[in-house]
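Board notes, transcribed. Complex of a protein with pyridoxal-5'-phosphate.
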Amino acid sequence: MNLQTVTPAPPDVILGLTEAFKKDPRPHKVNLGVGVFMDDAGRTPVLPTVKRAEEHLCRAETTKSYLPIAGLPEYGERVSELVFGARHAVLQAGRVRSAQTPGGTGALRVGAEFLRKFLPSSRVWLSAPTWPNHRGVFTAAGFAATEYPYYNPATRGLNFDRMSEALENVPENDLVVLHVCCHNPTGVDLTDAQWREVAAIAARRRWIPFFDFAYQGFGTGLEADRAGLLPFLETDLPVLVAASFSKNFGLYNERTGALALVAPNATLASAWLTHVRIVVRVLYSNPPAHGAAIVAKILGDAGERAAWEQEVSVMRARIVSIRDALVKGLRRRGAPMDFSFIHAQRGMFSFSGLQEAQVTFLREKKAIYIVGGGRINVAGITTRNVDYLCDSIIEALGEPS
Ligand SMILES: Cc1ncc(COP(=O)(O)O)c(C=O)c1O
């Protein structure tokens, strides 16, 4: 191999779709591909609490000097409280350490690099299906990736029996990536009872849960959405959480995330963090400041925090109501299949049940962009485009597949 024979790499499946969408000249085009929240006007706005925090920072900031390798200490504290609950026993016992990272992706990669150092022969288990970048991030860190069953296309729900059977057979010290809520791409989550069962399996089999928490607040609520984590915190297992504030603070391009580590005791937690710092040092040295300063400011101020919680609930309510509009619109048009499963899914994503040929038809003939596999970002649907979308889906369903 040499540099002279390099051919172009395939585009990222999701970001490549956005590029194609941007180039599409058709004025009625609809982007249901990329995972960003949009309001009913189709915009991805800066939250008012974020704007106010930025104005404050602009006035109060006195230096652009480097942050510590693990980030702003107050950010770490506020974020751990948000992720685990402010009074949670793991925090009181000093069992949690966190590092500020460039987005949730950065948290996943830093966590993966840390684990790889101590568990070089472990594998990583990903849900089938999952966010495509999971495989990329963990294999880039050197892990071999494999899958556990998750989604059942026949029921359009969770295949819990096969999932738990597979997790019973995961070897000790392998990693299992779990979506805390708003599973991407299916929108299908575990119930609290199912989470308890999975935590019991993990405790018995001694595999390592690595949670991806990219949508806190987009499912049922900021507190309710962490329910999946809680039974794992009652075990003495190592628990890793990759938190992202891209969605719930709308801080997509500020790259704001955190890796939280829960160790069996405080001494070990501190030791782990020293190795995480080394990982960060050689990857990007120390994290970007702006997004984290915004989050720390909002979460540290009771009034702003309450305003932000309200903003999150408005985003969540829009997602719920647009799911409803889609299901009802399709039903009203006599859709040949029952789409009511879209109601039960949570978060921005939905496995629509559309087949590849229908996805292609919608993109080519209707300028409606959907990721292959039929995942739609319901937040891309607005009261203005929902009728066009429903009409187009009905047409697509009538197409030979
Ligand atoms: C499941 C999941 N994990 C992680 C991320 C990464 O988030 P960030 O943009 O903060 O890196 C995303 C973003 O789309 C996601 O959907």
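Residues 360 and 372 are 8 Å apart (CA to CA). Residues 66-300 form a domain with the Aspartate Aminotransferase; domain 2 fold (CATH 3.40.640.10).
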